[in-house]
Structures are given as C-alpha cells and as structure tokens.
Amino acid sequence: MSKIPNLPNIKPELLDQPALEKLAPVGDLSHPPRILMLYGSLRERSFSRFLTEEAARILEHFGAEVKIFDPMELPIVGSVPETHPKVVELRELCLWSEGQVWCSPERHGAITAVMKNQIDWIPLEMGAIRPSQGRTLAVMQVCGGSQSFNVVNTLRLLGRWMRMFTIPNQSSVPMAYKEFDDEGRMRPSGYYDRVVDVMEELFKITLLMRGRTDYLTDRYSERNERALKAINRQIEKI
C-alpha cells in the first residue's frame, strides 16, 4: 500500500479510519450494566462506605447490577501470592465489571492506603487481557473538614493510568460526619443531589460504551507493535 501524503511515518495498512458505523455495539448486551464499587476505609463507621452504598442504591434504581468489594483482609500488595482469595475476588470483579466507582476518604491530602492497595492489586495486564481497560469510572471522596478535591484528582490520574474512561462529573463531600445519619444514610442536601448527578452520568456513559470498548481502545501503536512482533517471529523461523 502506498504511503499517505504528508504522513510518511504511518503504515497505511495499520491505520484505522474512524467512522460512525464502526461504533455500532457488538456482543450480548441483554444483561444489566455491571458496576464494581471500591471504597477506601476499614472503619466500622466508614463514611466512604456509606457514600458508596448510597451511590449503589441509585445505580440499582437505574437498573445496574452492583457489587461492592469489601477491602477487609485484602493483604498489602506484594505480600502474598496473586492466588490469595481476596486478590482473586477483586480481579474477577474487575473483569466482570463494565464500569466502576472509586470512593476514598482524604488522608494527609491524598487517598488512603486502603484505596491505593486495591488499585495496586489490579494489574494493567493479565496475559492478553487488560482488566481495567475500557471500563467507565466515577470518582468520589469524603472529607473530614472543608471541601477538597485532592482525592478525586488523584483517582482521576490513577484511572487514566489504568486506561479507564473517567466521567467528567465527580463528588466531594466535606465534613462528611454531618452528612450521614446514625443509620449511615445520607441526608438531603446539595451534596446528595451531586451524587445522584454523578451516578446518572456514569450509568449513561456506561450504556454508551457497552459493546464499543474493544473498538475504542484499539490503538495504532499497538497494532504496529503486534505487526513488528509477527515479522520478528517469522524471521526467527528462517
């Protein structure tokens, strides 16, 4: 195939021409959208867990199938084999999911070790599979004091690194101890309304992404890399 004018460094046979018809969803989409939720605290009265559970109720109302991972007894990353039951559970849930919600308290201006440990156990690759790539992601945080966005900003960075599609909206709940009642239910407020906004947006974007993630995450650089590896394998056989 001849070179593309003004783009001599591109291999034309490996370059996809994006088109609307290529975005038609493929696969079985008869099941409800699958959402995995992670929270970043082990405390008995955990406001990040309360916020996660509140968000889960909203997603379930929209029609999602929701699973919340319990980080209790998840070992520190690298301290046990990957065959540990909690590690296997987390990774299987990640593969199962089509979208995720990450919610962490802010501690010392950053996400908690509990939150980071869960994310660190999710590998970028498992053989030929990328457990997090193409999943949608919503990020939330709870604050003990005034409102901050340190945690959601960090979670966005991590989501990008994990090749996830993080939605624009987010939730940051200041002075969280005032926002939840004794039963752990969130009180009516503008912060609660924002949580509804975030889950509504996540659900919509997840619906848009379903059946399209393989195409949307197919990259020229990776196609080029695979082609070079195939050539090298043929050369080795000669």
Provide a descriptive summary of the structure in words.
With 238 residues, the protein is of the alpha/beta class. Helix content is 38%, strand content 12%. It contains seven helices and six strands. It has helices at residues 47-62, 85-96, 113-121, 150-161, 190-209, 213-216, 220-237, and strands at residues 34-39, 65-68, 99-105, 136-142, 165-166, 171-173. Strands 1, 2, 3, 4, 5 and 6 form a six-stranded parallel sheet that branches. α1 crosses α5 (190-209).
Task: From the structure above, extract its key features.
single chain, 238 residues, alpha/beta, 12% strand, globular
Helix-strand layout with pairing:
Elements: E1 34-39, H1 47-62, E2 65-68, H2 85-96, E3 99-105, H3 113-121, E4 136-142, H4 150-161, E5 165-166, E6 171-173, H5 190-209, H6 213-216, H7 220-237
Parallel strand pairs: 1-2, 1-3, 3-4, 4-5, 4-6
Quick structural summary:
This protein has 7 helices and 6 strands; from the N terminus they run βαβαβαβαββααα. By secondary structure, the chain is α/β, with parallel strands linked by helices.
